[in-house]
Amino acid sequence: MEKSLKLSKDIKMVISDFDGVFTDGTFLLDENLNQQKSVNFIDIMGVSVLLKRGIIFGIISGETTNILEYFRAKFGIEEIHKGIRQKGIVLSQLMEKYNVNRNEVLYIGDDINDIAAFECVDYKIAPNNANPIIKVLPGIQVTKASGGKGAFREMVDCLITYME
Fold first, then answer.
1. How many CB atoms within 10 Å of residue 11?
2. What are the CA-CA distances from residue 36 to residues 19, 20, 62, 87, 162 (Å)?
3. Which of 43, 61, 79, 112 has CA 20 to 30 A from 69's CA?
4. Share of residues in the chain with pLDDT > 70 (%)
């Protein structure tokens, strides 16, 4: 597989935003104002691939969607943090908890509320449809795929090629 991103075999932790990475950033509202989001199974499978490789995985989301509980239950993911406004602080705490350095952590996010988290790590990834401000941050790498359309899986597949 072509290495579309410059990563490292030394990455031990992948932390992701949710909306805009696992979804395309849109949601539907029904008449009762219930929210629905679309998540691509190819991206969900990417989580499984990471975990089978022994990579620590977590989600830090500004939203409180119950979809995140699906991830917690399906994969036994301990590090799901919902309703977070200070993503950089939470990411720093996770890095300390798991004793990993910034060059061993990859963060993937799509919008300005991810900037503080990007500043904590050496490997910064954004989906193709990320906010234009994010796509020009120093050190950012942009996937070919968009959020909710395989961006997360593209990153995972590329990371795995570095580990083989």
1. 22
2. 12, 14, 16, 24, 36
3. 112
4. 99
Distance CA 125, CA 122 (A): 10
C-alpha R_g of the chain: 15
Cα dihedral 27, 45, 131, 117 in deg (nearest 10): 110
Q: Is 145 exposed, middle or buried (0-12, 13-18, 19+ CB in 10 A)?
A: buried
For residues 27-56, average pLDDT: 89
Q: Tell me what pLDDT residue 44 has.
A: 92
160 within 8 A of 4, measured Cβ to Cβ: no
Name the pairing type of β-strands 28-29 and 56-60. Answer: unpaired
Structure tokens of 69? 């509980």
E strand intervals along the chain: 13-16, 28-29, 35-36, 56-60, 79-81, 105-108, 123-126, 140-142
